[in-house]
Please model this.
Amino acid sequence: MTQLAESTAHSPQTHSARSLYLALGGTFFLRAGGGVMGILTGLFLAAKNTELGGESHPFHISATLAGIIIASFFITELAGSFVAGSLIDKHGPRRYMVLGPLFGAVAMIVTGFLHLGPDSTYIQFVVFLAMLFAARLLEGASAASANPASLTYIAVVTSGHPNLRSRISGLFELATLLGGIVGIVIGGRLWDRFGQAAFLMNTTLYLISVVFFFSVPLLKVEHKGKSEGHDVKAYRKLLSSPRLRELIPAWIAVSAWLGVLLNHSTSNYHRLNQSV
Model:
């Protein structure tokens, strides 16, 4: 079994507050990029439907399918977090902090070059949907990799300093929410000015996140014997926690509300524009 050494955190001189703020900065830009991707995806799909000529076209993307595409982000974010947790424990958090926004940047490039027009074939339509799904899943992997790694880094560095841990944890949540909000606002503006090219421009936010995360100091990783399959048992224990069962419905409800809001607001926006 491998474990992250917490001894590095007990001395304030070992990891300065600067390293924590670098992790928070990387989180902010990562979530901002995710917010841009979320709003752009809805606008992109609505614009494609307009370009195709409306519901009469055989390749019309229904609101249900658009919702599934947008929600696919959370599939890899949820499932990938379990995998990332084990890998972070073995190798340390920084490489996965850096890997997260790189996944996001690749997803932006893939989506930025997707094409579907009125004269596209059925094969091209299937490839379009498959690549868009793949990009959204990769975007979810971005969050699944970077977020647990950032939380791990914060937990290790602030070990032995409960007041600092509480403050930084609050700032982490603030960076996450504020980044998403800023990303949604920026995404709408980018779409108005650049259309599909906004996806490619969004790679800038992810690359800034890479710079922040890469600047975070490495943590020591200790090797302590062989793995005994404790990870699976730990996850089972976690999932059976009464507190977690109380939290899950609220988390699902909030995520569902955000999904409905983003999906239908962008669809209605384009319908109104089309009718004017």
The first strand starts at residue 2 and ends at 4. The first helix runs from residue 17 to 52. The beta strands are 2-4, 221-223.
